Amino acid sequence: MALRRPSLTYGQIGQLVEREIRVKPAKSLSFVQHKTDFVQKKVFFDVNLSNRLQLFDPDDPARYQLYAQLGISLALPKSWLLTGAYGFDITNNFDESNRINSGSVLPRVRSDIVNYLIEGDTGLDSLYTEKRGTTLNDVHYRVFGGVLESMFSGFGGEILYQPHQSRLAYGFSANWVRQRDYDKSFKHLDYQTSTAFGSVYWATPFYNFDVAVHAGKYLAKDVGATLEIRRTFHNGWSVGLWATKTNVSAEDFGEGSFDKGMYFRIPFNGLLGASNRSNYSTRLRPIQRDGGQRLEDFSANIWWDIRGARYDAFSEMTKRLAP
Q1: Residue 184's closest CA among 123, 94, 108, 95?
Q2: pLDDT for the residue 147
Q3: What pairs with residue 211 in β-bridges?
Q4: Mean pLDDT of 296-315
Q5: Which residue in 118, 150, 206, 312 has the fewest CB atoms around it within 10 Å?
């Protein structure tokens, strides 16, 4: 990609000299002469108030929890990162739910969520190590392992091939997981499984809409595909829809017939009056069942995470480069 803008330098005959700005693929250094780490913090702590919402319950349209969360990030050698979070309950009304027993005929990988919200109202939310990197210029990867989320522990990885200046990308992610006990301690239940997904991504040229299709094996050992459509606005706000259909029949799936919902992401950059990457993101479902469920923060996420640095997103901002 080449951009032209006027230079402040003029030739002898007063003609305007134009310079070219070229954006080329990033290259990793084969030999690093000097490397410093004294300007980087090794440990990050944060304490914040957060909430959990459960909407669309026919018995009560809104159940909630308000809790304090202590988070930690520790930089380890070789670009590894240790990340953890512990939640302390302040108040909640999940114990009033009449849907503790979901009646699901599938492995209860998500429909037992109320048990976690009641017995694990205070407990370890996550504690895992992770490494991210880029190789061969266009190949991005991440590997991770530990207590991945409130309901599952395990390990896995993801790889993404993003050709330079292409609106198409291709990825693969795989995990092995074991279901955690309801009290969110280091104990586990008997259920364990593996998941794997092949993904195709398309950054459409239409109004910043992004489309992704994931096909593979889900947490309840069902097989199928997920379609995601998101739109990201220039201010960082993002909204999207998804739907998943697997080989689980509508009858076995239960109420709702198949998994679907909405995605929201709200950045705090403009709200807090300072430059930062903090944001609030959530997924809303009409009802939580077990078919078509993934580890949503550990399955096919790299492409969404690097959106701001992708060529298609960068090219939308080229007008800001010219004076």
Answers
A1: 123
A2: 97
A3: 202, 229
A4: 84
A5: 206
Residues 6+ away with beta carbon under 8 Å from 29:
none
Amino acid making up residue 240: G
Query: Is 244 in contact with 222 (CB distance < 8 Å)?
Result: no
Domain ranges across the chain: 40-320
Tokens of 300: 């096919």
Using the 8-state DSSP alphabet, how is residue 181 labeled? P
Instruction: Give the per-residue pLDDT at 37.
Output: 56
In angstroms, the CA 144 to CA 139 distance is 17
Which DSSP string corresponds to 211-252? EEEEEEE-TTS-EEEEEEEEEE-TTS-EEEEEEEEESS-HHH
Q: Is 320 helix (H, G, I), strand (E, B) or coil?
A: helix
- What SS3 class is residue 80? strand
The span from the CA of 317 to the CA of 306, in Å, is: 16
Q: What is the pLDDT of residues 47-62, one digit of tens each?
A: 888 878 777 666 667 7
String of DSSP letters for 99-128: -SS---SS--SSTTHHHHHHHTSSEEEEEE
pTM of the model: 0.81
Q: Which residues pair with 184 in a beta bridge?
A: none
pLDDT reported for residue 14: 43
Model pLDDT for residues 55-114, shown as the tens digit of each residue: 766 666 777 888 898 999 999 988 899 999 999 999 888 877 766 677 789 999 998 888
Bridge partners, residue 73, by sequence: 44, 83
